[in-house]
Amino acid sequence: MHTFIISNLELESLDVQMFSNANNVSNLIVSQNSLKEIPALLLVNAKRLKYADFSNNSIKHIFRFAFMGVNSLEVLDLSRNAISTIDSDAFIDLRNLKSLNLSYNEIRKIYPQTFNVFNLLALDLSNNKVHYLDKSTFNYTNFVNLKHLNLSENSISDLAVGIFSFMPNLEYLNLRRTNLSDIKFGTFSHQHKLILLDLSENNLKKLDFSLFMPIMHDLQSLELDGNQLIDLDGFSNSLFPQLRTLDIKHNNFNCSHLIKFMKSVNWEKIRIPIEANSVKSGETSIRGVKCRDMNRPELPEGTSNDISTANKSTLDANLSTWNRNFHIKRNFFTHFPNVHTINLSNVGLESLQKEIFNEATNVSKLILSKNHLTEIPTLVFINAKNLTFANFSENQIMRIDSLAFAGANKLQTLDLSNNDLRALDEVFIGLSGLRMLNLSYNKLSGLSSRNFSTCKLWELDVSHNNISMIKEHAFDELSDLRLLNLSFNPVGDLTSDRFTYLLNLEHLNLKRTNLSTIERGALSHQHKLISLDLSENNLKIFDFKLFFPIQHDLRALYLGGNQLSHLNGFRNTLFPQLTLFDINNNKYNCRYLEHFMESINWEKIRFLVDLKSINPQGMNIRGINCEATGHDESTDADSPESSQDNGFIKLILGFICIIMLAYLIIRNHDRIYTRN
Fold first, then answer.
1. Average pLDDT, the chain
2. Contact 274/382 with Cβ under 8 angstroms?
3. 224, 407, 298, 397: which is closest to 234 by C-alpha?
C-alpha cells in the first residue's frame, strides 16, 4: 500500500498502532476530520512517507515528538487547523522536508527555532495572526535554500532591516495585506533572485525604489496595487530588466504624474494589468489606472517635462527621456528646494562640476550609478549637510579628490563598486558617520591604515579587487566593523595580528584569497563571528585550535574548495550554534569521511552540498566527494572526535612499557645478585 486515505471520517484522535505497519506508505491523507492533536511517535514506522496531509482538522498544538523519525517526509500540509503553538524543534527530524503549509491557523508569534528544517524550499504562513517579526525570526541558515515564502494576510505592520538576510535564494515573496506602511532601506538587499514580489493591499504611501538596488535582474512581477501611493518616483526600467508585470491599480496617483510615468514605461516588455469595471463613470484613468487632478503643474524655465515637479521629494531621470550627453547646469537644483532623493542613474552623465550640489542642501539620497563619470572632484558635496546615502556604482571613476566628500558629515552609506579605482589615499577622512562602504569590483592593489583612519565603519566590502598588500595596522581603527569582505583578492597568508582590533566582527569573507596557511592566533579575537568563509583557497591543513576559546555564535563555516585531507580536531562543542558547514570539494579519503560523519551532530548541522559538483562516477558520502584509496592515513592517526583520545592511549601504553621494562631490569638484577 502506497497511499493511505482516512479523510472526512470525523476522527477525533489517532492511535499510534494504526501506523505500526506503515513501512510502505508514501502518501498519507488525514484531512477533513476533527483531530485535536498529532500524537508523539505517530509516524515513526512510516520510513518511506513522502507526503502527509493533516489539513482541515482542529489541531491546536504541534508537540516536539509529533514527527520524530519521519526522515523521508518531503511535503507536510497542516493548513486550516487551529494551531497557535508549535514546540521548539518540532520539525527537526524532517531533514528532507521541502514544503510546509501552515496557512489559515492561529499562529501569533514565530520563534527562531520553530523551523529548524535545513532543506525547506517553500513555507506558507499566510492567513494567520502574526503581528510581529523581528530581525532574528528568520536569522538562521536553515532558510538558505528557501525559494517560496508566503506571509500574506497577517498583521505584521513592520519589517526589520535584515529580516530576510539568510534567504539569498528566495524567488517568491508574498507580503500582501500585511498592514505595511513603510519599508526600510536594506530590507530586500539580499534577495537578488526574486522573481515575484507582492506588496499589494497595504498602507504604503511612498515606495523608495532604491530598496531594489543593486539591480533585481530576475524580478518579473511586482504587485503594488491597493496601496496609497501618490507617485512612483525613482522607478526605472533598467532596475528591473526582466519585469513583465507591474500592478499599480487602486492607488492615489496624480494624473499629471501618471502620464509622465506611463511615458517612461517600456511597453514592449511590461504589462500593467487592469480590471474590467474598475473605473467608474466620471472617473479619470490612464491606460485603465485611476488617477486624480488633471491640472498639469508648470516646471521652472529650463527644466525638462520628464522630471518630477519642484514640490516633489524625489527627482528622478530616466534614460529614455534624456540625451546620452547629459550635463547638469549650474543652479539646476535651485528649482527643487524640497528634493530629498536624486536619481540620475543611467543618463549618460560624464562629469560633475565643482559645488554643483550647493543648493541641494536637503538631499539625503543621491544615485548617480551607471553613468560615465571618471572622477569625483574636490568640494562637490561641500553643502550636502543632510546626505546619508550616495551611489556611484557602475561608472568609470579612476580618481576621487581627497576633499571630494568634505562637508558630507552625515554620509552613512557609500557605494563605489564597479569602477576603476586604483588607490584611495585619504579620501574618507572626516566621514565619521560612514557605516557602509562598498569598494568591490575595482582595481585596488593595497590597503593601509590611512584609508579608513577616522571612519566608524560597520560594513566594508573590498572584494573582487587586486589587493595583494595589506599594510600593518590597516584595520586597527575599525573596531566597530561587523562585516569585512576581502574575497577574490590575492591577499595571501593570514598573519596573527591582521584582525587584532576587529573585536566586533560578525561576518568575515576570505573566499579565494590565496590562503595556504593561517597563523595561530589570527582569529583569536573574533569571538562574535557568525559566518566565516575560507573556501576556494589552498589550505591543506586546518587547525581548529584557531577557534579556542569556543566560538559561541558561529553559525556558518565554509571550508569547501581547498586541499584538506582531514578535519582532525573538529568538535561539535567548539561551535554550539553551528548550523551550516561547507566541506565540499576537498581531498578526503572515504573511510576517514565516514568516521567524520559519525561525529557530526545532525540535529543541528547541515552540510552545504553542491549537486553539480558531485562526481556521478566517483564516490561520495552525504553528497561530499571522497577518494576510495586503500590506505587511510587520517583514520590511522585519529578520527575527528578521537584524536586526543588516541594520543592519550599512546601515552598510557608508553608508560606501561616503561614500568614493565623497569620491572624486568629489577628482576634480572635480583637473580644475578642471588647467584653471586
1. 81
2. no
3. 224
Residue 597 CB partners (closer than 8 Å, separation 6+): 621, 622
Distance CA 669, CA 72 (A): 70
Q: Is the pLDDT of residue 441 over 70?
A: yes
Rounded Cα distance between 270 and 373, Å, is 30
Nearest to 62 by CA among 98, 7, 101: 101
Q: How far apart are CA 527 and CA 266, in angstroms?
A: 51
d(CA 602, CA 624): 15
Strands 51-53, 27-29: pairing is parallel
Residue 224 near residue 207 (C-beta atoms within 8 A): yes
Residues composing the chain: 676
Give first-to-last CA distance, the chain, whole Å.
89
What pLDDT is stored for residue 299 in this prediction? Answer: 36
Query: Cα separation of 465 and 411, whole Å?
Result: 24
- Phi and psi for 451 in degrees, rounded to 5? -65, -35
Q: For 123-173, what is each residue's pLDDT tens digit?
A: 999 999 998 887 777 866 678 889 999 999 999 888 887 788 888 889 999
pTM over 0.70: no
Cβ-contact 342, 360 below 8 angstroms: yes
The pLDDT value recorded for residue 222 is 92
| pLDDT reported for residue 420 | 94
* Sheet arrangement for strand 99-101: 3-5, 27-29, 51-53, 75-77, 99-101, 122-124, 148-150, 172-174, 196-198, 221-223, 245-247
Give phi and psi for 520, each to the nearest 5. Answer: -60, 130
Pick from 461, 453, 498: nearest CA to 478: 453
Q: Which of 412-421, 449-458, 666-675 comes out lowest in average pLDDT?
A: 666-675
User: Residue 669 is placed in which grid cell?
Assistant: 638484577
Quick one: cell of 191? 534577495
Q: Give pLDDT tens digits for 487-534.
A: 999 999 888 788 888 889 989 999 999 999 988 888 878 788 888 999
Q: What is the pLDDT of residues 644-656, one digit of tens each?
A: 455 566 677 777 8
Strand blocks (E) in 491-593: 507-509, 531-533, 556-558, 580-582
Is the pLDDT at 248 greater than 60? The verdict is yes
Please say whether the beta carbons of 468 and 447 come within 8 A.
Answer: no
